[in-house]
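Quick one before lunch.
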Amino acid sequence: MPATESLTIRRPDDWHVHLRDGDMLKAVAPFTARQFARAIVMPNLAPPVTSVEAASAYRDRIISVAGSGFTPLMTCYLTDQADPAELARGHSEGVWVAAKLYPAGATTNSADGVTDIARIRPALERMQDIGMPLLVHGEVTDPDIDVFDREAVFIDRVLEPLVRDMPALKIVFEHITTADAAQFVRDSRPTIAATVTPQHLVLNRNALFAGGLRPHAYCLPVVKREKHRLAVRAAATSGSPKFFLGTDSAPHSRDAKESGCGCAGIFNAPFALETYAQVFDEEGALDRFEGFAAEHGPRFYGLPLNDGTVTLERGGCAVPDSIAGVVPFHAGETLRWRLAG
Ligand code: NCD
Ligand code: ZN
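Model of the zinc ion complex:
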């Protein structure tokens, strides 16, 4: 059978992105808007986006730099003080699509996150009642737990009990990195889903140490062993509606990455679709790419599918060494698919 030379799919969405603010927002948002019709925008600014007014103003700033044709979908940053009434107001006014749970201290700008999930019980109950999805950074923060085990331990200690206690809550297990997470989501009820990033489909933990310390391969949750990468690839390309595209594109300046204490985050927005297409091609699953990129997400969130299409073509796509002062994922490499137009 001849290899597919081009692939046209419904316009996709990114169900997890960090667009930042100020100059960085201006620099990075157009890349997301070029690839995606909509994106779930993470609220971990400094200070975090905890009020409806802050989310609404941030949405306006995004629209002003990303141009028309791109719809930012805003999220509320949950703290121990999360107010059920404020969550419900933001949701009913169409500002907040979902709320994000960062365990306090788990990642970039998570210091104001939740210290104990029991503290946000009233907020979660209200979200369950109104059908507002909970987006979860699924890692425990206990320093005694090995950093490579923090996702699996989170499932046992937090997620499994939560799924049991709140039988109607919609939950997205964000940026899954382990076989444990893929299996947990697959075996859970239909209102439990997961996003998958480009980097967790491509890298295993050897990438962190390939010929030296590699800060640009460092993100959270950290990339895992090869067997986990393979399990995450199998889940993403399985055709299951529980798995969908979420880049977790998380730009940090080159200086902030190449440092004695480098920031976590991979800037993958400029070539995300190209990377995902290459992975689906390698797995012989190009026929399932549209579901992953453009259908499973909106169906889970209860949003309409996008109109319009994008076309990817087989052919060399050179990734620059630097984009707007940020080193992108695959810097200096050539990808095997490119976005047409
Ligand atoms: C994200 C960031 O920099 O905001 N970093 C990352 O490594 N993914 C935060 C996050 O999603 O954990
Ligand atoms: Zn993220």
